[in-house]
Amino acid sequence: MNPRLSALHPYPFEKLRQLMAQAPVPPADLAPINLSIGEPKHATPAFIVDAMKNAMAGLSVYPPTKGDPALRGAISHWIAQRYGIAPPNPDTQILPALGSREALFAFAQTVIDPAAGSLVICPNPFYQIYEGAALLAGAQPWFINAQENLNFGYDWKAVPVDVWQRTRLLFVCSPGNPAGNVMALDDWKTLFALADEYGFVIASDECYSEIYFKEADRPLGGLQAASLLGRTDFRGLMCFSSLSKRSNVPGMRSGFVAGDAALIKQFLLYRTYHGSAISAVVSQASVAAWGDETHVVENRRLYREKFEALVPLLRPLLNVEWPDASFYLWAKTPYSDLDFARDLYGATAVTVLPGSFLAREAHGVNPGANRIRIALVAPKEQCLQAAHRIARFMEKH
User: Fold this and answer.
1) Which cofactor(s) does the record list (predicted)?
2) Exposure pattern of 81-91 as b/e (b: 16+ CB <10 Å)?
3) What DSSP string describes 182-236?
């Protein structure tokens, strides 16, 4: 076996299963409500389902690794419209992917030299795929802690020079998981300057980009930031996005990678061997999804209603606020997040994710400690019921 596999940590939800096994059995009259997993529960739009049904003839052909030209064109058009920039070249700057998770992991394998003592800078808390991708590529993750006083952003200037010198890849997530914070243009300007100076690549995870609350206040994206700063070739930048949360199709496994043409070329070479092509069935459904915004506006409305209902209830109890974007609440707990999540489930049958499961201890602290992530993915009625149960639990504790 690959000895690097032994370096991987258990996934957060495996830790959660073990923790919940220690919890008291919840009252029998309370139906379980799971708000721990960021899996969209809103209905998949019918027109996407219909597009997939109408494309079944595509099962009889091997899909091209580079992706269907029509899909690459649809993605390029969507990027241009969404971010107000010139459309990326669909032939050289875009690759369809089997969701952003697959692409984020695979991309690290193409840009890391395992013999060079490479570092991969990861936000902390973070999506565990970043860490696993770094370790299995032969690099070591270096964690930069989110700071509440920076809107859960990062003090990039505090990273030591010797760390930057060994860095080959930097992961960012905006809107962030779990805090929902959005990177500003100044953050991008700082990172681009550092990438130019030290020669690392930026991988920008933007899978939550379409879950926001004001139609006129859309989160800034990496390609958009690069364009605004005159980096129209997107050098050193790869952005990853997905239909899963935007269009409520997590099981379809459809997303894209877009950015630096030189990086795309090498990633395509890797994928030729890796075997990560999107079938014609999924491609046609994806073209339909990227081409429609009405269902995405409606999706945001459903999330906004849940935040409007829950934040006033939970703010005085868990010191929770609206995020900039995404469908998570990043709430403080009055005592250990692990104990709180276990006790909450035992008393209320509501499952949340301990924040420390999403982070590592780095520089003397675990920035997820004494926090929980609440995913507002269930229907509004269930989320509201969960909030009332949490409120009663807090009143007793």
Assistant:
1) pyridoxal 5'-phosphate
2) ebbebebbebe
3) ---HHHHHHHHHHHHHH--EEEEE-TTTT--S-TT-PPP-HHHHHHHTT-TT-TT
For the four alpha carbons of 129, 383, 206 and 253, in that order, the dihedral sign comes to: positive
Strand ranges (E), 326-369: 328-332, 350-351, 353-354
Domain 3-43+295-396 adopts which CATH fold?
Answer: Aspartate Aminotransferase, domain 1 (3.90.1150)
Beta bridge partners of 120: 141, 169
Predicted structure pTM score: 0.97
Residues 6+ apart with CB under 8 A from 105: 129, 132, 133
Q: What is the pLDDT of residues 15-58, one digit of tens each?
A: 999 999 999 999 999 999 999 999 999 999 999 999 999 999 99
> How far is Cα 8 from Cα 15, in angstroms, rounded to an integer?
13
Q: What is the edge-to-edge ordering of all strands in the sheet holding 328-332?
A: 328-332, 371-375, 353-354
Both structure tokens of 134:
């770094």
Phi-psi region of 213 (alpha: psi -120 to 50; beta: other; left: phi over 0): alpha
Question: 211, 244 in Cβ contact below 8 A?
Answer: no
> 2.60.40.10, 3.40.50.11720, 3.40.640.10, 3.30.300.90: which CATH number matches 60-292?
3.40.640.10
- 81-91 pLDDT tens trace: 999 999 999 99
Structure token pair of residue 261: 């043409």
Q: In what order do the strands lie in the sheet with 167-173?
A: 94-97, 255-259, 237-242, 201-205, 167-173, 119-124, 140-145
CA distances from 360 to 47, 90, 141, 245 (A): 42, 38, 10, 26
Residue 212 · residue 325 · CB < 8 Å: yes
Both tokens of 61, joined, read 């052909």
Q: Which among 272, 397, 269 has a CA at the least distance from the CA of 336?
A: 397
